[in-house]
What does this fold into?
Amino acid sequence: MDQDLKAVHKAPLFSGLFPEELERLLAHARRRTLKAHETLFAEGDKARAFYFIVEGSVRLYRLSPQGDEKVIEILMAGQTFGEAVVFLGGHYPVYAATLSDAALVEIPTDDFVRVLKANGEIALRMLAGISMRLHQLINDVQALTLETAGQRVAGYLLDQCPADAHAADVHIQVHKNVVASRLGVKPETFSRVLATLRDLGLISVAGNDIHIADRARLVRWRDQAGPGSGS
It folds into this structure.
């Protein structure tokens, strides 16, 4: 767990803590390894823990009454999920399943809350990490409600590469249908937007590898994208 503790410390939720404080919080945590497409918890399950991803990827999703899956979020190594249940209690509001083989740190909710109640300083410093998470969720909601499909796809690609890069290579680590669901577009729309960006010379595509030829041009296209960029 020593290496896992170092990795967990880099997560926004825990980055403001001293190492000894993190050790106290994670005293009862354990490492879990899962195979690809393994369900970690289901919507409505009693929330007994939250998680940090050491390796691999996880999707959070809900099912419609017809059984259709809507991906809420795709999470990669270095991210936490399920932490809201620490403060709200109750039951998980979504399903969680691995997209690939994964290693997770499972953090029991009851023990975690007990330490927080005993040390208000730790709780206050963690608020900064929670605020960052909330800010990201607000941005996600804005993108899903105000942006065209083209802008969402372009934004997704831009989020995967350094902000100061002129050109960049992006590897989509999960199935494109999962990404499309996360962005709130149909798989065929996602493919059509990629084709449009390719035809414009903004990207080249080879399977799940995408080369962004000029990041600044793609930013300009995203900011100006309108009719014809998908909906």
